[in-house]
TrEMBL record:
Record protein name field: Ribose-5-phosphate isomerase C-terminal domain-containing protein
UniProt keyword list: Isomerase, Lactose metabolism
Pfam families: LacAB_rpiB (PF02502)
Organism: Liquorilactobacillus capillatus DSM 19910
Record keyword Isomerase present: yes
GO molecular function, one term: intramolecular oxidoreductase activity, interconverting aldoses and ketoses
Alphabetical list of InterPro entries matching this protein: RpiB_LacA_LacB, RpiB_LacA_LacB_sf
GO biological process assignments: lactose metabolic process
Protein family (similarity comment): Belongs to the LacAB/RpiB family.
Length: 174
């Protein structure tokens, strides 16, 4: 799987650390990580980053998008406004695992400033481990797999009929 990563300019001091964590954890699962942040480190806010990740997903450059902002919530909201992007949010291993197992989204947002402190990079690493592991697991609880997968497809259908197509979005947004 090709995993894209980008964050807003306000968090660039954490960029290299986070990118290395993502590469280390995703490598265990055979994934490739693509840094979507411009090498010139242009000024990007969380909305710009959501559009950047959403564009990469919609154009097939990546299969999954990892991102975040100070609280993680604004980024999740912005990502979910982009056609064909289903972005989860979580601060714990169990939230990340359940999102990947049940909701089957294609983006995940994390808070990189809120409560960030001692050993936070280890906590993020654990969250990523659980997220990636969840890709290979049946929905939880497994006895409800059929119902959960049906609800996931229903969510994707709801999103597809309630939003513009990506081409229409790009035309209107630019």
């Amino acid at each position: 799987m090709k995993i894209g990563f980008a964050i807003a300019s306000t968090l660039l001091d954490k960029h290299d650390l986070l990118f290395q964590i993502i590469k280390r954890v995703s490598g265990k699962y055979g994934h490739t990580v693509i840094d979507l942040n411009n090498s010139e480190k242009e000024t990007l806010d969380y909305i710009d980053v959501a559009i950047l990740g959403g564009t990469a997903l919609n154009k097939g450059k990546i299969d999954y998008f990892l991102t975040g902002c100070s609280s993680g919530l604004g980024m999740q909201i912005a990502c979910n406004a982009i056609p064909n992007v289903i972005c989860g949010y979580g601060t714990s291993s169990i939230e990340a695992n359940l999102f990947s197992r049940i909701n089957k989204g294609n983006a995940f947002s994390y808070p990189f400033a809120l409560n960030w402190g001692w050993a936070s990079e280890k906590k993020y690493e654990n969250v990523l481990e659980s997220l990636f592991k969840g890709f290979t697991q049946l929905p939880y609880p497994e006895r409800d797999t059929t119902r959960k997968l049906s609800a996931t497809e229903k969510l994707k259908r709801l999103k597809s009929i309630s939003q513009l197509s990506f081409d229409e979005f790009t035309e209107k947004y630019n």
